[in-house]
Amino acid sequence: MTRTWKDALGAAIPAPLAEEIDLFERQMDLRKAGKMDEKVFAEARLRRGAYGQRYDNGHRHDGKAQRNLAFPTNRMKGPGTYWDAPGMIRIKIPYGGVTARQMEVMGELAEEYADSILHITTRQDIQLHFLHIDDTPDLMRRLGAVGITTREACGNAVRNVTGCPLAGVCKTESFDTTPHTEALFKFLLGHKDAQDFGRKMKISFSGCEDEACALARMHDIGLVARVQNGKRGFQYFVGGGLGAVPHQAPVLYEFLPEEELLPISQCVCRLFGRFGEKKNRSKARIKFLVAKLGIDEFRRLVEEERKILPHDERWTSYLKELKKEEETPLLDPAELNGQARPEGFDLWYRTNVAAQRQAGYAVVKITCPLGDLTTRQSFALADIAREFVGETMGMRLTVDQNIVLRYVPGAKLVDLYRKLVAADLGGAGADTIVDVTSCPGTDTCKLGISASRGLAGELRTRLAAKAWEMDEAIRGLRIKVSGCFNSCGQHHVADIGFYGVSRTRNGYAVPHFQMILGGQWDHNAGSYGLPQVAIPAKRIPEAIDRLTGFYLERKEAGEKFQDFIKRVGKKEIKALVVDLTEVPAYEEAPEMYVDWGDAREYTIGDIGIGECAGELVETVDFGVAEGERLVFEAQVALDEGRAAEALEHAHKAMLIAAKALVYVKNIDITDDQAQIRSEFIDRLVTPRIFWDEFVGGKYADYFLDALDNPVDASDVQAVHRRVEEASLFIEASYSTKTKLTASKAEAEA
Q1: What is the CA radius of gyration of the chain?
Q2: Reduced to 3 states, what is the DSSP secondary structure of residue 608?
Q3: What is the pTM for the complete model shown?
Q4: Which residues contact 8 (CB under 8 A, 6 or more apart)?
Q5: Per CATH, the architecture of 432-605 is what?
Q6: Strand-pair category, 496-505 with 403-409
Q7: Tens of pLDDT along 588-618?
Q8: Which CATH number fits domain 609-749: 3.40.50, 1.20.120, 1.10.3470, 3.40.390?
C-alpha cells in the first residue's frame, strides 16, 4: 500500500493537535451542509487562525500582481465570504523562535497554497495570504508535524505570546525569559479558563525595563523580568493595549515571584472571562475592565481568586528544567579581526550587527522590507541558519517585522553577509528611520482605509536613498504606519506614526493619514503619541522632510524627539504642515486622488455629492470641521497640562459633530444635550448609519460614554483616552457625513 505524506505526518503530529484539526475539518463539512451556523463556524475558524481577507481580482492592493496565484480560478467568485474568496492563515510563533526546518516548511506551504510570500507580523507571527479554506486542514497538519500550531492565533483567545528576540543574549537583561514565555504559551493554549473571553488577550515578556524589548506596557498582560534579593520574578502589568484608543497598563505587582507567574495569569484570565464585557465588543478588552474596576480592586479580585484556584503541577514543573534548556551554540566563538570586507559590509555591520552578552558572538538583524519574505528567501534563510547557528536555535522573528540570528561568531560575519546578499537579505538600516513598520492595510485587510504598505514602501525607498547623509538624531527615529484607526502597525508608540483616514475633497474621496507624534518606543512603550493633523497620503513624504528638518533646526543640545515635540507644542507643528492639507482640484492634481501603490482612483465606496444638497452639506461640514478643531484644541490643552480644559474641548467636539450629523435628519435639532443624545441614537445609531461594517457602533459608544460617564480631570490617563476617543469619533463623523449627504442628494435628485 502506498503511503502518502498525510500518512507519514499522522504519527508525527501530537495526538491532541491531530484531533483538533480533524474536528475543524468536520466543522467545515457541517457548515458546507448548512448544519452549522455561520457565526458559530466563524469563531471556530478564527480560533484555528483562519481569516477572511480583502481580495481584488487576483492582485494585491499595492498594485503588485501575485507572484504565484495558488488560488484556483474556479474557486474565485469575487469579494464575499471566506468560502468564495481567498483568505489568510496566521501561524503562531511564540516569542518568534523558529527553527530552520519550520522556516522551510512555511516556505513550502506559501509556495504550494498561497502567493509565495511569508509575512512577518508585529506580533512575531507568520501570515500566509491568498489561500483557500479547503486547503487549511492539510496545511495545519504539515505545520503540526514540525511543532507549529495556528490554534488561537485569532479569535477571542490568548493570542501569540511575544518576547524579546534578544532574550538570553542581551547585555542588559535581568535574566533569560525564554523558558517562562514558552511555559505560559503552552499553559494557556486551549486552557479551559481562557476560552470565555469577550475579545482577544495579548501577552508579552521583556528582559529589561529601559529598552523596547517586547513593549510590555501596551499589552493586556506585560511582564518585565526583575531580580529582587537574588530571586527571579516579574513586574506584572495588566490592562494595557493600543487599538483605536490606547491604554497604558498599570502595575498589578511590582514583583511577582516566577513560581506565581502561571497561577496569577490563570487568575487574570478567569476574571476577564467572568467579568469582562461580552455584548459590546468595543468595550470587551481587559483594559476596559481594569479601568472600570481600578487596579486596586482588580488586584483584590486576583488575590481572592488565587486562594481558591485548584493546584496545577504545571505551574512550577518547567522551572526544574531551566538549566537544561539553555542554548548551545553551533560554532565556537571568534572575533571578526582583520578580514577583507566586501562592498556594503561596513554599513550593514554598523546598523545590523550587535555584540551579544557571550564574548565572541554577535546578533545579526536581517531586515525584511514590509515584513515580507519570498519562498526563495525562506529556503535560503533555512540553509543559512543551519550553517551559522544550527537547525534548532538562534533564529527569531521580531515585533518590528525583521529576523535576528543569534550566536553568530564574529569571524563568520563576512561569510554570512555574502550569503545574505545573495538571497537579497543583506539590506542595511535595521532599527533606523529606513526600517519602516507597516500593517497589511488595504493590501489584504478588510478594515484598511488607506494603503499603509504602499506608503511605508515609498517612505523606505526615499529615506534609504539619503539615510547615510542624515544627522544621527534623524537616522535613529522610528516610523510606523497603520491602515486604519486600529494600531496594528503600532503607530502610537512610534516617534512618527500614521494611521489611514479618508476625507472628501472637491467631491472626491481622498486618501489621508493622521499624523501621530511623540510616542515612545523604548522603556517598553513608555508613552503614547496623539494625533496632530490629517495629511493627504501623497504629501506625507514632504511632511516628514519638513518635520525632521524642523527638529534639526530647533532642537536643543541632546534633546530627544519626544521631548522636542512636547516643548514646541501642537500649534507650531500644525502650522508647519497646514498648507500640505490643502487638496487641489481633481483636474489640477489627479495624482492626489490615488493612493500609494495603486493605479486606481481612491474610493471607500461609490459615494458622490450632488449640488442639490449644497446648503445642507455646508451645515454638516461646518459642524464636523468645528468638532475637529476642538479636538485639536483639546490635544494642545492636554499637551500643556490643562487636563480639565482638554476634557471640556473633547466633550464639546463630539457634541457639536453629533448635532451636525443629526441636523441632516432633523433640522429642528436644538443645543439641548439630552435631545442631541436621543436623536443621535434614534436617527443614526439604531438604523446603523453611524456604523462601521467591521467594528459596529464602537465610535458611537465613545460619544455616548462621554455623556453618560464623565471622567475626573485629575485622572490624566483617563482624559488622554477621552481626547483620543473624541478624535476617533470625529473621524467616524466624517465618514457618516459623506454617507448622509450622498443619500440625501440621491433622494432629492
Answers
A1: 26
A2: coil
A3: 0.84
A4: none
A5: 2-Layer Sandwich (3.30)
A6: unpaired
A7: 999 999 999 887 888 764 332 222 233 333 5
A8: 1.20.120
Q: Are strands 201-206 and 158-163 parallel, antiparallel or unpaired?
A: parallel
Q: How confident is the model at residue 695 (pLDDT cuts 50, 70, 90)?
A: low
The cell for 105 is 516548511
Domain ranges of the chain: 5-144, 169-323, 345-422, 432-605, 609-749
Q: What interhelical angle do 540-554 and 561-577 show, nearest 10?
A: 130
Q: What does the chain come to in residues?
A: 749
Q: Which of 436, 398, 403, 401 is nearest to 213 (CA)?
A: 398
The DSSP 8-state label assigned to residue 681 in this structure reads I
CATH number belonging to the domain at 169-323, selected among 2.40.110.20, 3.30.470.20, 3.90.190.20, 3.30.413.10: 3.30.413.10
**Torsions phi, psi of 567, nearest 5?**
-70, -45
| CB-based burial, 186-208: b 16+ in 10 Å, e otherwise | ebbbbbebbeebbbbbbbbbbbb
Mapping DSSP onto H, E and C, the string for 158-221 reads EEEEEECCCCCCCCCCCCCCHHHHHHHHHHHCCCHHHCCCCCCEEEEEECCCCCCCCCHHHCCE
Architecture of domain 5-144: 2-Layer Sandwich (3.30)
Instruction: Domain 345-422: give its CATH architecture.
Output: 2-Layer Sandwich (3.30)
Is residue 44 predicted with pLDDT exceeding 90? no
Q: What is the 3-state secondary structure (H, E, C) of 215-264?
A: CHHHCCEEEEEEEECCEEEEEEEECCECCCCCECCCEEEEEEEHHHHHHH
